[in-house]
Amino acid sequence: MMHGPLPDQPETSSAAADNVFVAALERALAFCNSIIVILAAIALIAASAILSYSVLSRALFHSPNYWQDEAAVFLLVGATFMTAAYVQGQRGHIGIEAFVGLLPPLANRIRLWLVDVASLVFCAFFSWKSWTLAHEAWVDGQVTNSMWSAPLAIPYVLMASGMTLLCVQIVLQLLIPFSGASRR
Hints:
Layout: H1 20-61, H2 68-82, H3 84-89, H4 105-140, H5 153-175
Helix pairs in contact: 1-2, 1-5, 2-5, 4-5
């Protein structure tokens, strides 16, 4: 099961009518995520087209393409990591809800807070490590081990950016209850 908004509740939370910073952060992140979702959809379509072209060109013309696998992987990595904050904002990640019905509401709020804190710690480490890998790949000029030799900084920056946005989204979800709004 997942923590999703209930069908009778609005999609967006009214976080922080009293807290201008949290409300502005929520609006900015929602705007950024809406653009990223559109770009990720285009990236998925492009990856599908590239892989379809690859299969057809190999089958019909017996011509190998050395760039298509890496291009598709880069697009898929970007779409996956960059949309993580949007999915977290919708509480769309899979969660185990075995205890939700057994625990009182206060215990469930504490459980959600602890899960968000643990997620933030993991995602912050992953983000930091991705940024160090991206920097190292950029400085050293690392490329893939193929004939195309695509720069490895591309997927590392996409991973790092996506995880950083995910960290911001989790921090926002941790701040919302303290701003007086209800937690989703």
